[in-house]
Design brief:
The chain contains 15 helices and 13 strands. It has 370 residues and is of the alpha/beta class. The chain folds into two domains: 204 residues, 3-Layer(aba) Sandwich (Rossmann fold); 132 residues, Glycogen Phosphorylase B (Rossmann fold, 3-Layer(aba) Sandwich), CATH 3.40.50.2000. Strands 3-2-1-4-5-6-7 form a seven-stranded parallel β-sheet, sandwiched between helices. Helix 8 crosses helix 13. It is globular. The mean pLDDT is 92.
């Protein structure tokens, strides 16, 4: 008998270009390989469009408009949730006799008022109220800072609705520890990602790479921090992103050894991974698992990361820990004299076995359809 699953995604999961949608897209791909029939519900906004690639993976894809009405800012319900309230979505998920997997707290509006006839599950991509509190601390714009702070408070209150689902799939050991204390039936499912072999590029790279979405305040703060670390050194630092931010561009222009590279797609980033010798992964908020950490472990060479990036991920021993400017410069000097070795590849391969997307998909199927 064919197993059918409904997935409600907070964004169109193709192309898989940032953390959350990377997890969703490769989850759909892995579930498809398990023979699961998938009905995908997803939202159109920020000029994204319908994707034929998803039509090939899913039995049916439903697209909904996300409403960003300004009056939503004054509601007690978080904006990221209320803006995804959609009457047609509600009617569609209730017309299909199949379990529902809500991707992120963003998509869980209808848990607030409805006891579904089918089983419901939630994939937590972050501890959202902590994530938004971290954004508030990193944000310099006073209006955005206030919005993130209020959203954090609303999200903490709304999170209680997760008690209504049949199961929660957490994305990191850190989050599993949190959700298992507050809710029953919590299962750790590692982040889904592109299923590839670890690349062993022995060629000596000639620069340090930082990559991230510079529309996010935490990534802006990390980029500015690294500019300050390397600005008066002989090292070449490349900051790459699919978005330009004037504040970063203006700062980079002051220094001859720091460059900004636009990466419209993952192929451009792969080229930078090949050429870089060291990858710097910095975050100032400990939440979830950064998909760019996994991506870098598969495709990049040496990694320097701080505690907030790697602590409680299970991947700590695959990275070089450095938190301060002096610690980062010391590690940089050490690693530029070291070639990336076969031993390091073997170490990563063994450790990343638990992040196998097929094994994770099997566990989800077992939980939902047992």
């Amino acid at each position: 008998m064919t197993k059918t699953l409904q997935i409600v995604s907070f964004d169109i999961p193709y192309p898989p270009k940032y953390g959350g949608v990377i997890d969703i897209y490769y989850k759909i791909e892995a579930l498809k390989k398990q023979g699961i029939k998938i009905y995908l519900h997803t939202f159109l906004y920020d000029n994204n469009t319908q994707q034929q690639k998803l039509e090939a993976l899913c039995d049916k894809v439903f697209y909904y408009n996300r409403s960003k009405n300004l009056k939503f800012f004054f509601s007690l319900i978080p904006f990221i949730i209320l803006s995804r309230k959609n009457k047609q979505l509600y009617e569609n998920i209730n017309s299909i006799d199949a379990p529902i997997l809500f991707e992120g707290l963003h998509t869980c509006y209808f848990l607030k008022k409805d006891n579904f006839k089918v089983k419901t599950f939630a994939r937590t991509h972050n501890i959202e109220h902590k994530y938004y509190y971290g954004l508030a601390k990193s944000e310099k714009n006073i209006i955005k800072k206030y919005f993130f702070f209020l959203e954090s408070k609303k999200l903490k209150r709304f999170e209680r609705n997760l008690s209504k689902v049949n199961g929660i799939f957490t994305i990191s050991p850190f989050e599993q520890n949190y959700f298992s204390k507050h809710y029953k039936n919590s299962y750790y499912i590692p982040a889904f990602h592109e299923s590839i072999k670890i690349k062993n590029n022995r060629e000596q790279g000639d620069f340090i790479l930082y990559h991230g979405d510079l529309r996010i305040s935490d990534n802006i703060k990390a980029a500015l921090f690294l500019i300050n670390v390397y600005k008066n050194t002989s090292y070449k630092l490349v900051i790459s992103s699919n978005a330009k931010v004037k504040r970063i561009s203006d700062e980079i222009r002051k220094y001859d050894n720091i460059f900004l590279e636009e990466i419209p797609n993952k192929e451009d980033l792969d080229i930078l991974f090949d050429k870089a010798h060291i990858n710097t992964l910095i975050s100032f908020q400990k939440t979830g698992i950064k998909l760019k950490l996994l991506n870098t472990l598969y495709k990049g060479k040496h990694i320097i990361a701080n505690s907030e990036m790697i602590e409680d991920t299970g991947l700590e021993d695959l990275c070089n820990l450095a938190n301060s400017k002096n610690e980062i410069l010391k590690k940089t000097a050490e690693l530029f004299n070291e070639r990336f070795s076969d031993l390091e590849v073997q170490k990563r391969s063994k450790k990343l076995e638990s992040f196998n997307p097929i094994k994770s998909a099997e566990k989800i199927v077992d939980v939902i359809f047992k």
